[in-house]
């Protein structure tokens, strides 16, 4: 196993280097150059232009610029943005990344949960009315034109009913006299959600570990989890941040709902197909022959062993979300990585566009590595030594 992991890490490093080279030279081959806005400005003296050209690294041959970029990249320096000069690329990415992470992780988690729950039900009741209805609804959303669906939801819930804000990250009028900047409040939100999630997971895991779950233990676990959540809200309210946090949450609702409606069908159909194969396995038939309840056979035998492809799909979709859904962030004016990538590409801001694309590639490579490890964790029949694992 160790040999396989080291080999995969080596492959990731080589693949990352090739990916960086491709991204760098493809962006350099694009027509136009934003640096000319500065270098050809007649108001800037010639000496200042030459100094600026030197600072941007544009006085070197392309291959030297690339090698310099590789060296800087592996030392944590992604350069300076041309369009937001002299702001470092790394600062821009770190500012936008949490917004993309929270938005898309929330949407992917919800779509995975809904898709998993529906997929196992319709697979277990194959051919029933619920199977046909869920499949038709799922395919309808899965094949829907995403911008049109976004516009319909915006028109219905934001413009007509006025239940939710139209777009953007915050309501500017609310934050004019706010004692904190929006990024600070959002950072506290992310930190609080992380702490609460870890606490809830620890409670549920510790109370359900080792012994058979009972209604009383489950109720106690959820009561403790609700207490942790209420305590977090109490801390935010005492600090006066609750109203500002609620404003950010309200702006997240529409994009999260839209992404969930689009994505849950893929998980549902994948779970359905995987579980249809699992229910034909001998161990599932043996469990039925023992007289176990249908819910136990479905959840503990069939659904648990059908999780492998759906969990792998979830990991890869989470990594792909790091690029920021270009359409999502554009339609809802959500200031994340997707907007950064789109605007930097239009503005020929090569350092920023390269940094955003490379940042996305790193997450994708890590996700593929995690997916390989999940295969071994979820399916012990998989061997990485070249020999198949004997069953039974």
What is the N-to-C order of secondary-structure elements (H for helix, E for strand)?
HHHHHHHHHHHHHHHH
**Inertia-based shape:** globular
* Estimated share of beta-strand residues: under 5%
Structural class: mainly alpha
Number of helices: 16
- Terminal CA distance reads 21 Å
Q: What would the average pLDDT be, to the nearest integer?
A: 78
Instruction: Give a short account of the largest sheet.
Output: none
Rg over CA atoms, rounded to whole Å, is 25 Å
Helix content: over 70%
What is the number of E strands?
0
Which blocks of ≥5 consecutive residues have pLDDT under 50?
Answer: 386-392
Description:
This protein is mainly α. It has a domain at 94-346. The relative contact order is 0.14. Helix 5 (89-124) packs antiparallel against helix 6 (129-142) and helix 5 crosses helix 10 (242-278). Mean pLDDT is 78; it is low at 386-392. It contains 16 helices and no strands.
